[in-house]
Amino acid sequence: MTQITRTDPPKIADERTSLTSWLDYERATLALKCQGLPADQLRERAVPPSTLSLLGLIRHMSEVERGWFVRTLKGEKAEDIYCTDADPDGDFDGVDTAGVDEAFATWSAECERARSLVAAAPSFAVVGRKRDGEEISLRWILVHMIEEYARHNGHADLLRQRIDGAVGE
Questions:
Q1: Which structural domains are found in the chain, ordered by start?
Q2: pLDDT tens readout for residues 113-151
């Protein structure tokens, strides 16, 4: 994994800059929580019987990025990456044999695709559709993604502290 640089969001900015900067900040925070750990520690579970791990969070956020930006916003019929009907928690369950480099590359690609889709949107009022047909604005998706990363970054912070004692925001 390359060295992670996390940039503080600007304190005065327009809505697009504010929301996309906060989302990138939260993405970088998750990467920082994983930085420097070998594969076995990235796969380490929080507490039995939980399947929560740092690698699982990376895989989960790949699924989440694809789900909200590609499927919901763009309307593509993109398949799940790790989850299946037989294993709906495959993002977390499958980490024991998962390739670490592949997982991080997939997550990075999904984040880049999401950034492109957001940049192409003429406004945050653009509406996508969830699988059940419910309409969702890009603004809602971005706020939700910031919340999703922030919540999981709290998990990542606890996982990292348990693994090697590292703490920090």
A1: 15-164 (1.20.120.450)
A2: 999 999 999 999 999 999 999 999 999 999 999 999 999
